[in-house]
């Protein structure tokens, strides 16, 4: 990869479907005129008819700069605005056009996906903990882990830092599908750790009736288990991070960093600190919702916890 320019053969291809024979003089003149207009588009350095057969033709547009970049995407949109020959339909391909279409498709569906995840997570966590505030806190804490992870991935893989240490060559961009996949996996794992921790805290709160003591006791009971589970998860992921395939390396590094940051900082430090500051308000829910939780909430046992009785000491 070091010996070859990845942008040496880049182009934006316009595939035309014509009504007549693409090799006829009439269609040839129309194609030449269209190619000239594409070449005159701002950002393009040239355009030539690179193929014509039957009722189809291909025009390749060249440009300066990286194939995957904002200026290249802007050029694709300007080329799409150039009217094709009368009666023809123009379709655009090439690395830049595919990248642009992928981002547009993700941009249309991503907000709905995020809304669905947020609503479903909030409702399920309410059924698990019977609180209106804890689900919101959990989502915010998960976003902290995700934001830190994406920031590190951009700094390393897009900006090209630590290339020698991690042994990779930065391409200046990140495949658009990778953040989506990482988001789903990291959000799910982070929520698992959240449920493990807060479930133990809720159990201790029902037992002790004191929020501060419940946080300390719950963390003591489950903290080591969460840390060990995270370390076990990081072992195979760290192996993936040694891959020579860039997308696999990005996946491994992103997952390892996300898990370690989430457990060591968010679950062990920030979540208990936030719940201690919230106090009894962490478990608040209005009367109707509290009754709904009492009847339909997700609990480990149908039996109410019994407070520990003091053991008499013989004098």
Structure description:
The protein has 315 residues and is an alpha+beta fold. It has two domains: 82 residues, Alpha-Beta Plaits; 190 residues, Up-down Bundle (Multidrug efflux transporter AcrB transmembrane fold), CATH 1.20.1640.10. The protein is 62% helix and 9% strand. It contains nine helices and four strands, in the order βαββαβααααααα. It has a four-stranded antiparallel β-sheet. The C terminus is likely disordered.
Oligomer: single chain
Q: Helix and strand string, N-terminal first? A: EHEEHEHHHHHHH
Alpha-beta content class:
alpha+beta
Strand order of the largest sheet: 2-3-1-4
Number of domains: 2
How many helices? The count is 9
Shape: elongated
Please give the CATH architecture of the largest domain.
Up-down Bundle
How does the major sheet shape up?
A: 4 strands, antiparallel
- CATH topology (level 3) name of the largest domain: Multidrug efflux transporter AcrB transmembrane fold
Q: Say which CATH homologous superfamily of the largest domain is assigned.
A: Multidrug efflux transporter AcrB transmembrane domain
Describe the SSE topology:
Elements: E1 12-17, H1 25-39, E2 44-53, E3 56-63, H2 70-80, E4 89-93, H3 95-129, H4 133-158, H5 163-166, H6 177-208, H7 211-240, H8 246-278, H9 287-296
Antiparallel strand pairs: 1-3, 1-4, 2-3
Give a quick summary of the entry.
The protein is of the alpha+beta class and 315 residues long. 62% of the residues lie in helices and 9% in strands. A 4-stranded antiparallel beta sheet has the order 2-3-1-4.
